[in-house]
Each structure stands twice: as structure tokens, then as C-alpha cells.
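Q: Mind making up any chain with C-alpha cells?
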Amino acid sequence: MHVVPVPALADNYIWLLHDDGGHAIVVDPGEAEPVERALAARGLALRAILLTHHHADHIGGAAALRARHGVPVYAPHDERIAIATHPVVDGERVRLDAPRAQFEVLAVPGHTLSHIAYVGEGVLLSGDTLFSLGCGRLFEGTPAQMLASLDRLAALPGDTLVCCGHEYTAANGRFALTVEPDNRALQERLQRVAELRARNAPSLPVPLSSELDCNPFLRTDSEAVTAWARRQGADDRVARFAAVRAAKDQFRS
């Protein structure tokens, strides 16, 4: 399976997954036109659409793509996603024949209450739950919900490629350094990101193992993050996570 980040809107990525036979899946198409251009450039036929949550920058192009290509649309159970043809729930498997692929659905509330992720074929399609070096804002869920969701994702195999919804890595990394300034893996990751972005290349996908070494939101139990959180008056795991998330909300890079 080939995994292609398709830039859209200001800083979104639409994920295009395709096989060598010309069959493709798109994930979170906030716009239709970048998908159409990517399909045409590669000679691909769209076979399915996967959606992680209801925000317009992730579903805005789905209706047009569905109308043109007549493909199924997999999405969480949420009345705000009217375009869904196949609502899916936690633990369900999305099985496709062309391209031949299988994804497990994971409920990951926090950014939104109905947010889901898809994992399979060596990739994690995390939407706005897990970003590289960050995580999504808590628009609907609680810190406890988001932490539990991130714990689920952190337990996946380390070689899983994280495919998230935005190019936020550099800005997230600048914040992460305020929490863990001595984290050598984080410093090296940011150097690589700077090199990629200097030539307008995406910083994604990234192995989950790198995120476990660098992302403060996945490192709530690490010595450095624990020490940082205690200086903010946060002791238990949820409080530590909430303190990091609150600091990120206030951070201006």
C-alpha cells in the first residue's frame, strides 16, 4: 500500500492510500479538488472514503467525491456526518477488496466525542486525535477521555506510521521543547522536520516509535514530563496530561 499525504486548505493533509493496481482510498477529504488532481496524476480510481470526525476541514469534500465516484463513505456514528453510507463503531473492521485492505476502528474521543481512528496496513489514520509531537484540542471531550484515547494509540506497534490531519509538527515541537528541553530525540526530530519543511516536504508520516520518544502528550509518565507537571501543581496522570494540554493552548510560538 502506498501512502501519500495530499495537502489541502491551509495546513490539512488528506491521506491517499493506493495499491499498484490503480485502486485508492482517501481519508478525511476536506476538499475534493486536491483529491481529484492526485487521482488523475497517478491514474487511480477512488474506491472508498474514510472519515475520522465531523469537522468541515475533514469532510468538506466528501459529498462531491461521493457524487462523482459513487463510493462508500465510512465514518463514525454522528448525525453531523450526513454523507456517511457506512457508520462504524469501536472494534469494527473495515474490509475492502480493491485496494485489498483492512482497518480496525478505534474510538478515540477527546477532540470530538465521536472521533475514531483507523489502524491497519501498517498505518494509523489518527485524524485530529494524535498529531506529530502534539494532540488535538479538547473541543468536546475531557482530559481523561483524551488521555485514554492516546494510551490506546500509544499501545500500537512502534513501526506503525502515524498519518494525522495537519502539518503542525514544527510548531508542536517548539512547544514540546518547553516541556522537555533536554530530550535529545526531540531535538533531532525537530532538526529533521526543519530540513523537510525547508524544501516544502511533509513531516509525515512518522513512526509511532518516534512519537513515543518525542511527543509530550504520549510521555505523561516519563520522568521529565512528570517533573514539569509537578512544577505546575499536577501530580496524577490525568492532571499531568491536562496541564500539558492547557500549556499548549496558551503557547505562542
